[in-house]
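User: Some background: our group keeps a shared notebook of sequences we're curious about, and every so often someone picks one and asks for a predicted structure to add to the entry. Today it's my turn. The entry only has the sequence so far, pasted here. Could you supply the structure so I can complete it?
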Amino acid sequence: MPDTTSALGSPAARREGPAKVTGAARYAAEHTPEGCAYAWPVPAEVARGEVTAIDDTAARALPGVVTVLTHLNAPRLAEPDDATLAVLQNARVPHRGWYVALVVADSLEAAREGAAAVRVTYAEEPHDVTLTADHPDAYVPEDTDGTSGEHTRGDADAAYARADARVDVTYRVPPLHNHPMEPHAATARWEDGRLIAYDSSQGASTVRDVLAGLFELPKEQVTVLSEHVGGGFGSKGTPRPHVVLAAMAARVTGRPVKLALHRRELAAVVGHRSPTVQRVRLAAEADGTLTSVVHEVTSHTSRIKEFVETAAAVTRVMYPSPHARTTHRVLPLDVPSPSWMRAPGEAPGMYALESAMDELAETLGIDPVELRLRNDTRNEPDSARPFSSRHLAECLREGARRFGWSARDPRPRSRAEGPVLVGSGVAAATYPVNVAPSRASAHADPDGSFVVRINATDIGTGARTVLAQVAADALGVPADRVRTEVGNSDLPTASLAGGSSGTASWGWAVHEACTRLAADLADRKGQELPAEGLDATADTAGRADADSDYARHAFGAHFAEVGVDTVTGEVRVRRLLGVYAAGRILNSRTARSQFIGGMTMGLGMALTEGSTLDPAFGDFVERDLAAYHVPANADVPAIEAHWIDEDDPHLNPMGSKGIGEIGIVGTAAAIGNAVHHATGVRQRELPITPDRVLADGR
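Assistant: Of course. Here's the predicted structure to add to the notebook entry:
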């Protein structure tokens, strides 16, 4: 049979697929070394305070319990850069759910029973977990990376006051949780002073470096393996307390220790999308040309770690205007530390901006697609740098054609099917091109096969497969002759799987190593390879992270059709369609899967996903999949993902942009705009649940 998986762009199936569906793939909690013990943590039951006493007598007396670790007897760690990893180091409780003890036992059941028997006494202190835009403790953070803080150009307020058309609206997005299929887990053991950990992580190299620092070890004495990871969506992008606790318990007991977090605990210890209150003011001339844009965001963070949900960053990229102000304010509260969640900043920010653009289109009486086209630009508004490529207009036009937008009656409530009102909406999307330095090695064997090694992490995106395609393309051989090794920190160091940067970063290093190997093989043409084979390496430091003269972003357009039941208030998405401009698509099958996955997650953000902090107890109320509703297949009856072919020479050797996150970015706004078109009522707080729809009397 001819090889059909060599060319980049071909729909090669994921190589690890059979292993996953047959159960042969091993995840972090599925490694059980001989003599393995099990750990179960004890979370704090107050939102703020201090532990004054811990009684573990009953727990230690239970059959099978090996030990109980607390701040009084746990190993001392070096001070981490990330304060969320300073577990069992002192008596402070910065938020509810913070771990105050760890029970280790011979079985999972004994560990869980032991944790329930630990009695903790607290000196409770007053707490505050409520985000408000006018809270006196909110501040503008330092803009260390160009995405946070405040950016201004011109006089936005004066331009707004004299404009022909204006909108001034506030949007709210609640806390959101990542909820990967595989909860966070780790299995750790020590061998002759060496730490070996299987961890559910998006970056084994980063976990290795952090563990080495915490336990004051040379990096060479730590190995972290993340061969298979069951999703992360950002929550596994940085090391989390579970792997530190497993390593601590293994050191104390002298046995391998396994720790898998209960799903109900994830909300408190692995990060969440910070809630945002976003005020957007848009001003335009009568023809729709924007003259002033103001986007002000307030989000919460914990008191132990600053995290800024940079929702206004998209406004610095999307539409030109001579006057603009984008501001982030962050409010420290007694809450768990927020962190990355798929398209952090961009997803909630684009919901607000694109909803406001829809409101402006209605105010002006201009078609929403046309308004966006009239405000297209060749240069990034904030930096004035030219875009390396920007095919947003093509995405909008192609999406409108495929969706049948021209047949849409622009009047709200113009289409009804009995008690169901039907509407359609549009939103644009953008996501930055992120690339980080990585290393890779390529090896040629005398039998004509090849091995590519890089500590990339495949979190379900098909990284193994696409990297094999990149290697085969550079080597000029069929892809079935290339094997990839990933997910082991002993392999050449690679950046983490986050920020839609994985393939662009790892592929660059793989392409370079394989190009060098191909050149070496060409020089030896006609000669037999030595028995040990031939090797080549690459390190993209200094180039992958070099400054660019271009603003590099992916763009897209989302279209949605919804039906809103006026009796029940239920919103059903009937159709979702996305068109993207994301550089060269390296694998059409895995790319389409990524786009569709992001759009489905955006549907959840729009209609079903939301969490609340109980002001009395400081706890997330929706802490499991019974209360926190993620969309299922039945919630997406028709979904399409398409793309525009882009040739962008300013990215990486493959000409690719990230695709993992742009699918979520505009989806919630497109659905919200469709709900408005259906009902005539604007929903400015997510999720758009039946109670909110019915509260408006529709």
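Suggested note for the entry: The two ends are 60 Å apart (CA to CA). Residues 294 and 325 are 5 Å apart (CA to CA).
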